[in-house]
């Protein structure tokens, strides 16, 4: 007696469709697990009609009360069952979603996990992604600072020329002695420039030693 | 002629000439109350007894939270400009400001450091060898004041204990009204005393106190440099047993005392 319900369960969907088309009598051919309140009302209608046909025998009336009572019980059970089924279905769907979410999360997180907690993922298509190393930034800054200090020296020198503190050199037709003077002054200015730069950065060079 | 001039460059602008010692901002949070240069310093400067000093330069490091206005403060002083648009400093930047103090050319090398945490590892490499540490905070943001403790600790860690003058500077003074400003200043003065720092309120936007503040920084750093130099030379002379010792006025213990800026703290 255990096999038939199982078989019915397997074919449940087909049967359901057929039942819908078969009218009130179709409800009686349905699997008890597929029965709805509507089906119970259909069955009540069919049975009521047949009882009516039996006439007004008092025994029929007595049986009718019992049948009504049984149908009411069936209605309650069917309603209860469908509610439970609905709850179970919702729970199943939620669990499915949860599992799917966890599976997706696990597959997305798995490369990050393998990178370790202090690692970062870089989007290679982002034009503003980090590219340069700390050392490169250090080098650029150091170069910028060096150039800036040289600029300051040159600006000072230019200002000295403008304010007439340093006499401008003569034109190209100068004598050899003047050339010599110019040469030495050039040399000394080079030396001074280095000295000033070195002084500006004495703290840095001192740091390196 | 050239060689004697070039180390000092062209004459400094008139408002960088300091003849009398610049005053403190608040007497209850200042590094020293004196209103004149140290006797030895004035004497040395008068007699141009600076032979070996040459071009004098002090390193100043400015630290503090991002957006408190470190760059604005420096730019107001060195370039006399104020830019309303915020542009975060990348790593470090610097300016050189030339002074003439007591007749002697003197320069401040002002290092402007980034306030952003990510640049700390770069900027902190520039803390070393600072004669002056300026810790800046935003007068309208008490959190930035609290953070100055950490900024100072980081900067001090890179320097010899007691070798730096410390200044605590509240910025954006223009944004605060009378009483609110007084309250913020009172809190800052308390912290300044704890840090053994001199306190200043400034506004880079209006320029209020900016020149006075840096003049004070320059004068204190200059005086300390000269005293240290005189001390070095006198001890060198004593070592060689040079009879010329009398030329240096004042007694050595006094000089040694003034070598340590924290000992000069009046509060």
UniProtKB/TrEMBL annotation, chain A:
Q: Which residues cross the membrane?
A: none
Extract the SUPFAM superfamilies matched here. RILP dimerisation region (SSF161256)
Keywords carried by this UniProt record: Cell projection, Cilium, Coiled coil, Cytoplasm, Cytoskeleton, Protein transport, Transport
Coiled-coil regions listed: 78-105
Q: Tell where it localizes.
A: Cell projection, Cilium; Cytoplasm, Cytoskeleton, Microtubule organizing center, Centrosome; Cytoplasm, Cytosol
Q: Which domain of life is it from?
A: Eukaryota
> Which stretches of sequence are listed as region Disordered?
1-33, 164-188
Q: Does the keyword Phosphoprotein apply?
A: no
Tell me which residues make up the RH2 domain.
Answer: 129-199
Biased composition of type Basic and acidic residues is found at: 171-180
Q: Mainly resides where?
A: other
Regions of compositional bias (Acidic residues) in chain numbering = 8-23
**UniProt entry tagged with the keyword Kinase:** no
The protein's name is: RILP-like protein 2
TrEMBL record, chain B:
Residues in a coiled coil are none
Which Pfam families does the protein's record reference? Ras (PF00071)
Q: Which UniProt keywords apply?
A: GTP-binding, Nucleotide-binding
Recorded hits in InterPro entries, A to Z, give:
P-loop_NTPase, Rab, Small_GTP-bd, Small_GTPase
* UniProt KW Membrane keyword: no
- Region Disordered: start-end pairs: 241-267
- Tell me the NCBIfam families matching this sequence: small_GTP
Q: Which PANTHER family has this protein been placed in?
A: RAS-RELATED PROTEIN RAB (PTHR47977)
Which named protein is this? Ras-related protein Rab-36 isoform X1
